[in-house]
Amino acid sequence: MVAQIYVCGECSFAYKEKELAEKCEAWCKGHKSCNIGITKNSVGEIKQ
Ligand SMILES: [Zn+2]
Questions:
Q1: How many CB atoms lie within 10 A of CB 45?
Q2: How far apart are the CA of 30 and the centre of ligand 1, in A?
Q3: Distance in Å, CA 4 to ligand 1 centroid
Q4: CA–CA distance from 5 to each of 16, 30, 40, 42 (Å)?
Q5: What pLDDT is stored for residue 1 in this prediction?
Q6: Where are the domains of the chain?
Q7: From ligand 1's centre to the CA of 33, what distance in Å?
Q8: Which of the 8 DSSP states describes residue 17?
Q9: Closest CA to 38 of 48, 46, 47, 17
Q10: Which of 48, 47, 42 is nearest to 14 (CA)?
Q11: pLDDT tens across 1-48, in order?
């Protein structure tokens, strides 16, 4: 079984929780950079 992951559309970091992915995306869009306090919770970066 594959766990659902959520990916930030801006920086491509993946999260286990939708809330974190949404927070990351909101931050990335607003600040044009990543918030290390959010990305530390990432499970990895999705290469596209
Ligand atoms: Zn992001």
A1: 13
A2: 10
A3: 17
A4: 5, 23, 15, 10
A5: 66
A6: 6-45
A7: 8
A8: S
A9: 17
A10: 42
A11: 667 899 999 999 999 999 999 999 999 999 988 899 999 999 999 876
Cα–Cα dist 37/48, whole Å: 24
What distance in angstroms lies between residue 29's CA and the mean position of ligand 1's atoms? 8
State the Cα–Cα distance between residues 14 and 12, nearest whole angstrom. 6
* pLDDT for 47: 79
Question: What is the whole-number distance in angstroms between the Cα of residue 1 and the centre of ligand 1?
Answer: 26
Ligand 1 centroid distance, CA of 19 (Å): 12
Nearest CA among 35, 6, 28, 4 for reference residue 18? 6
